[in-house]
Amino acid sequence: MPFPTPSVTAVRQGPKPGGHDGRSDADVVWLAVPVGFAVAAVPFANVAAKVWRGVDLRSVGTGTVSGTGLYQVAGFGPLAVAGVFEVAKGAVGPLLAGRDHPRVAALAAGAAVVAHNWSPLLGGAGGRGMSPAIGALGVVAPSGSVALLAGLAAGRLAGQTAVGSLVAEVAVVPVVRRRHGREAAWAAGAVVVPMLVKRLTGNGFRRPASPAVYAWRILFDRDSRRAVVGAVPPVRRAARAVPPARPKRRLVRSGATS
């Protein structure tokens, strides 16, 4: 008795999606958001600062857990090592989502920046989101990563990193939309929004401030003119304002008797 042979169509189609041998990838795709969030919440810059110098970056400068703070306390070597991980962690979620699910990739990209900026492992502290944003857009829209890097580099060369970063954040959405289309622009917007919110709130949601303070935070990522790069620190100003004390001369009157 001859055995029935499967049809050519059945062989080409293979197992149906959703079956035991060919399960749908929907579950894996939607894991992109929580997994991307969990990975991006790991503060590699702070880990490097503790390993190399035993310092918590939350206690350095403005308390921002960033590459700048790591460079100040540990130098370029630890910054280079941690920087690779900080960028790579932003790419995890979008890679899991894949190119066939651009909106899930956009959610994963935004979740990575949120986790980095308000890390649960740091009690809500974190960085400004530039590194994971570069990593996330490197998967979804490479031109967005180039725009962020260009703004960051130009700002550093000009001595105003915050201003250069702001220009890049404002420009990245139209650049990505023009180069990669509307779906990719959603991912660019998803990473830019938490970056701008972080500039306004800092490490923890502060009490409402005056419009002038919000303007300084948006432009220079600080609260006032005194903190802008290039200004004289308050301690140094006070030291310059008070001249050193001179020793008093002892006057001896003529004709005085002992």
Low-confidence stretches: 6-23, 227-242, 251-258
* C-alpha geometry: globular
> Could you describe the largest sheet, including whether it forms a barrel?
none
* Total of DSSP H or I helical runs spanning 4+ residues: 13
Q: Would you report the number of β strands?
A: 0
Task: Evaluate the radius of gyration.
Answer: 27 Å
Mean pLDDT: 80
Q: What count of structural domains? A: 1
Q: What is the multimeric organization of the chains shown? A: single chain
Amount of beta strand: under 5%
Can you write the helix and strand succession as a string? Answer: HHHHHHHHHHHHH
What is the structural class? mainly alpha
- End-to-end separation in angstroms reads 142 Å
Give the proportion of residues in helices. Answer: 55-70%
Word description of this protein:
There is one protein chain. This protein has helices at residues 8-13, 26-30, 32-40, 44-53, 67-74, 76-97, 102-117, 130-140, 142-158, 161-180, 182-201, 211-220, 234-241. The protein is mainly alpha-helical. The longest helix has 22 residues, at 76-97. It is built from 13 helices and no strands. 63% of the residues lie in helices and 0% in strands.
Sum this structure up briefly.
The protein has 258 residues and is mainly alpha-helical. The chain is 63% helix and 0% strand. It has one domain (24-230).
